[in-house]
Amino acid sequence: MNLIENYYAQGATPFYACRKDMRFSYCMYVPERVEGDPERFPVVVLVHGTNRNPEAYRNRFIDFAEKHRVVVLSPLFPVGVNKPMDHHEYKFMRDGDTRYDEILLAMIDEASEHFPMDGSKLLMHGFSGGGQFTQRFLYLHPERLRAVVIGAPGRLTYIDDTRDWWLGTRDFEEQFGKRLDLEAMKQVDIMMLVGDEDVETWELGAGTGSNWVPGVEDQGDTRIERLTRYHQHLADHGIESKLVLVPGVGHDGSEVLAPVRRFFARALGSER
Fold first, then answer.
1. Distance CA 28, CA 75 (A)
2. Measuring CA to CA, which residue among 83, 84, 86, 58 is closest to residue 71?
3. Is the CA virtual torsion 261, 67, 77, 39 positive or negative?
4. No. of H helices and E strands in the chain?
5. Dmax over Cα atoms in the chain, in whole Å?
6. 41 forms bridges with which residues in the sheet?
7. CA distance 13 to 87
8. Residue 228 burial (CB < 10 Å; 0-12/13-18/19+)?
9. Distance from the Cα of residue 167 to its chain's centroid
10. Which of 83, 146, 195, 266, CA to CA, is 20 to 30 A from 23?
11. What is the rounded distance in angstroms from the CA atom of residue 223 to the CA atom of residue 250?
12. Mapping DSSP to helix (H, G, I), strand (E, B) and coil, where does residue 8 land?
């Protein structure tokens, strides 16, 4: 790697196109190597919400990356990839032939060719729409996760053999070519969080489009209620998780990051 390439290979990086599908890109933060660093850094993945602000999430984890010696990767899933003005496709893992989980894994594999990172066991957080992505990624790839934080999702997928994806998992194997692995999910450190003032309902009601199917309104009136019910749902399936209500916070992903950082620090075994 020459001097110029090396300059852009550390710190806050530009956005890189994903070679698997160049409609998608990602940015990173890579700590400058110091004595005592591992050969390859663990990877924290931060998944944007509907507003698409991956760079902002990446920037809020720079201090964490330096302190705990991790690489941060934030993907960008643009609006309207397959349907004009559709903001929601990525949250549900697939749209037609586009598999958003596979796009993210390709980003990690491609970045690992050029950066000192170990993407075999990820730490992942997403808020709102990113929380939906994170929750469903846990179903698809628990073996690739060390820890997840599911932040204030508006719509959830239940382990439910009476309803099809994405409300339930009856056709999970048909959709994704693999079985739901509850035993693997039990090995992942799971936290879910929501602000204790996150009570707006305007985005959760009945509607049309890819972010609504009949029955989703039965999950609860607010994100707090929906996440509390889902926390119990996982427990009913023998899957442990931690539920955190962040005091004094509404629907604001930037205000819930402190408990995310603490949770990831514990998962890394490097809390200090």
1. 9
2. 58
3. negative
4. 9, 11
5. 57
6. 117
7. 25
8. middle
9. 18
10. 146
11. 10
12. helix
Which residues, in sequence order, are CB contacts of 178 under 8 Å at separation 6+? 140, 172
Q: How far apart are CA 41 and CA 110, in angstroms?
A: 15
Tell me which residue has tokens 């990172």: 117
DSSP string, 46-72: EE--TT--HHHHHHTTHHHHHHHT-EE
Cα angle 32-34-38, degrees, rounded to a multiple of 5:
95
Give pLDDT tens digits along the chain (272 positions). 544 456 567 899 999 999 999 999 999 999 998 999 999 999 999 999 999 999 999 999 999 999 999 999 999 999 999 989 989 999 999 999 999 999 999 999 999 999 999 999 999 999 999 999 999 999 999 999 999 999 999 999 999 999 999 999 999 999 999 999 999 999 999 999 999 999 998 888 766 677 888 889 899 999 999 999 999 999 999 999 999 999 999 999 999 999 999 999 999 995 43
Whole-angstrom distance, CA of residue 26 vs CA of residue 103: 11
